[in-house]
Amino acid sequence: MKFPIQPDILFNKTKENLIISLNNFYKTDQQQFNEMFHADINQVLNTYFFENEGVSWSRSFSYDPPLDYISVWIRIYDNENDYTAEYTAFYDLELNYFDDRLK
Questions:
Q1: Under DSSP, is residue 49 helix (H, G, I), strand (E, B) or coil?
Q2: pLDDT tens digits for 34-69?
Q3: 1 alpha-carbon distance from chain centroid
Q4: Which long-range contacts (CB under 8 A, 24 or more apart) does 76-79 make?
Q5: CB 17, CB 97: distance < 8 Å
Q6: Of residues 56, 55, 51, the one with CA closest to residue 83
Q7: Residues facing residue 70 across a β-bridge
Q8: To the nearest whole percent, how much of the chain has pLDDT over 70?
Q9: Distance of CA 76 to the CA centre of its chain
Q10: Distance (Å, rounded) from C-alpha 3 to C-alpha 94?
């Protein structure tokens, strides 16, 4: 992989994973989803804003051997521009997705 990675490639790849994660969250627990976002899945996907917040290259020593990885996070704002959540996707250095977090 060449560095630096194009930011739009990382954002688009992460946004695709975010949409999958949001759909899975909604299918699994609609009540908790609605409480977190104050909206249903269609409103979130069609009217909320997804802002490219940051990228970091890190090394985790929780693995043997240590794992070098990239994390990309997107902030989610509602249609009134209020912060609602942050999504982080984790990739190996070949841009293979291996985990995510929504908080």
A1: strand
A2: 999 999 999 999 999 999 999 899 999 988 999 999
A3: 21
A4: 76/37, 76/44, 76/48, 76/49, 76/50, 76/51, 77/48, 77/49, 77/51, 78/37, 78/38, 78/39, 78/47, 78/48, 78/49, 79/43, 79/47, 79/48, 79/49
A5: yes
A6: 51
A7: 57, 91
A8: 94
A9: 9
A10: 11
pLDDT digit string (tens) for 19-31?
999 999 999 999 9
Q: Which helix (H) or strand (E) holds 77?
A: strand 67-77
The Cα–Cα gap between 86 and 51 comes to 9
Q: CB of 7 within 8 A of CB of 52?
A: yes
